[in-house]
Amino acid sequence: MLAMISCANAIKQILEKLAFASGWLLIVLMCITCTDIFCRKLGIPIPLTKFQELEYYLHTGVFSMWMGYNYAINAHPRVDSYTETLGYRIRAWIELVGCLVFALPYMGLLVYYGWDFFWTSYIQNEASENALGWGNRWVVKGVFYLGLWLVVLGILSVMARLIAYLFGGLEQKTTGLDLGHVELEA
């Protein structure tokens, strides 16, 4: 069971490094968005279509690189008001069943159909519909597809911790498992 926890920790570290490395994209995104808005308000003629599409690409990049890490640290949206009064072990069972019945099958479908979404765009060398837009739209679709796999890794990391806790007799602190409402450290 400790090997499972080690594997879960390694996955979480990889997801964390990818997420934090992509964090600089937020600064770039902020600068591009502010420039876009500033130039619009002042009527400065710049290729605004390229700026808007670059904002779209950067949003996708940041979102995709953080999805898996957010799942691994339990920062994804959920409604915990139904389970907050339940015992920790029951919440762990609910999480495991949710991963097996909902999260993994759903992500399996997204990954399966996401490949065609990306590959078709690559084969057709898809570009913007706008004449002034960016080419190579397959790049952003590929980044999103990678993000789907990162979510799968996040789910597997959480499931390894759940299995070690529920079936391996390890304590919550040993597994590093956080369920329900989690406060992030300041």
Which key terms come to mind for this protein?
186 residues; mainly alpha; 0% strand
Care to describe what's here?
The structure is a single chain. With 186 residues, this protein is an all-alpha fold. It is elongated and about 65 Å long. It has helices at residues 2-21, 24-42, 48-72, 88-123, 137-167, 172-175. Helix 1 packs antiparallel against helix 3.
Outline:
With 186 residues, the protein is an all-alpha fold. It has helices spanning 2-21, 24-42, 48-72, 88-123, 137-167, 172-175.
Number of self-contained structural domains = 1
**Biggest sheet character:** none
Shape field: elongated
Counted by DSSP, the helix tally is: 6
The helicity comes to over 70%
Global mean pLDDT: 89
Strand content: under 5%
